[in-house]
């Protein structure tokens, strides 16, 4: 039995904690493997509210996006370089305020090397850099304003797609999750707000992604004519990543969710009821069950810990909900999780519990 194809997840995803010093410098990752990131997601953890920021190797170091807002891309540089095992930062307070603490989540795609395509009929021109081993691709394209498809390069169907209009402000982070209701292709989530899921054909044209393309309708959030877009696409890899759902029970003895690995990063959203944020947890901040510090992708607020609302256990083979505040009975929760270590390695060695 093949338990995983990735024995060391740190080769493809890592969380780095650091303290700012207002001096440009290089940051080194601390995982078992070196990781040169292609998508860097940074958030200040304490002291004052501050935006989430996204830098990637497709758009380059000179441009950022704010995951908690609807702003267009900003020509603001925070990252100075993608390094062999980390990244460089400048002195901007968004990434390096003196004595403030930060978290940086990093994923590896294809080192910035893209496969490109020309506009074909209503299908946009653009490109992708894909890491098929880790199930992650960064897709960029120019909208046509007409129903079309865009290649993602993963070779298997993605379960999580998030798209941002880079050129025009006012557009949310349009999000597809493959377990969001029984017909996820008819549904829409916004990563930058706490709305419940919306049933609409205006985004995905009620068409599920395939192993080669995802469909985009004419809504300006995903496909306005001549607007530039970026999309982050993820497909599940056994023992490394999983994208699924569970039903809440409003009990401190909450649902157990099997992932097949010890989680390093967890992203959870109630899609049934309005007013529930996207909860972000990792294995570096706080670091013990069940009191894991959390952040919200839809808020610039500092991190917090609240066992009754957002308590989770990270286990050797999954996670368990321990809070009741965002564990509404009968509501659907979707999640995205990446591994610290597989439950069992490719050579049959089991992982230890947290």
Give the count of structural domains. Answer: 3
Helix content: under 10%
> From the structure provided, what is the oligomeric state, counting identical versus distinct chains?
single chain
Mean pLDDT: 93
* Rg over CA atoms: 19 Å
Terminal CA distance: 24 Å
Sequence stretches where pLDDT stays below 50 over 5 or more residues: none
Biggest β-sheet description = 8 strands, antiparallel
Q: How many beta-strand runs? A: 25
Strand order of the largest sheet: 8-9-10-17-12-13-14-15
The helix/strand series, from N terminus to C terminus, equals EEEEEEHEEEEEEEEEEHEEEEEEHEEE
Estimate the strand proportion: 35-45%
Structural class computed from helices and strand pairing: mainly beta
């Amino acid at each position: 039995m093949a338990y995983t194809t990735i024995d060391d997840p740190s080769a493809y995803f890592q969380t780095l904690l650091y303290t700012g010093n207002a001096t440009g410098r290089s940051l080194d990752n601390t995982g078992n493997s070196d990781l040169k990131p292609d998508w860097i997601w940074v958030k200040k953890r304490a002291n004052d509210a501050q935006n989430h920021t996204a830098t990637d190797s497709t758009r380059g170091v000179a441009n950022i996006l704010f995951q908690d807002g609807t702003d267009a891309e900003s020509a603001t540089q925070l990252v100075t370089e993608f390094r062999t095992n980390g990244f460089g930062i400048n002195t901007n307070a968004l990434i390096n305020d003196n004595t403030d603490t930060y978290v940086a989540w990093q994923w590896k795609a294809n080192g910035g090397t893209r496969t490109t395509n020309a506009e074909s009929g209503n299908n946009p021109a653009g490109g992708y850099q894909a890491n098929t081993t880790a199930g992650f691709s960064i897709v960029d394209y120019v909208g046509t304003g007409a129903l079309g498809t865009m290649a993602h390069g993963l070779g298997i169907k993605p379960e999580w797609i998030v798209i941002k209009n880079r050129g025009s402000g006012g557009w949310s982070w349009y999000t597809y999750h493959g377990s969001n209701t029984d017909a996820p292709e008819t549904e829409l989530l916004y990563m930058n707000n706490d709305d419940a899921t919306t049933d609409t054909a205006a985004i995905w044209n009620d068409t599920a992604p395939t192993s080669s393309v995802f469909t985009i309708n004419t809504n300006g959030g995903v496909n306005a004519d001549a607007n530039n877009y970026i999309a982050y696409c993820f497909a599940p890899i056994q023992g490394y990543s999983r994208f699924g759902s569970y039903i809440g029970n409003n009990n401190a003895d909450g649902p157990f969710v099997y992932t097949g690995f010890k989680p390093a990063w967890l992203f959870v959203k109630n899609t049934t009821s309005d007013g529930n944020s996207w909860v972000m947890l990792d294995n570096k901040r706080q670091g013990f069950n069940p009191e894991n510090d959390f952040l919200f992708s839809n808020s610039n607020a500092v991190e917090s810990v609240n066992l009754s609302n957002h308590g989770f256990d990270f286990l050797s083979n999954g996670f368990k909900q321990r809070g009741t505040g965002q564990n509404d009975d009968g509501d659907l929760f979707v999640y995205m999780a990446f591994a610290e270590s597989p439950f069992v390695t490719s050579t049959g060695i089991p992982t230890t519990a947290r």
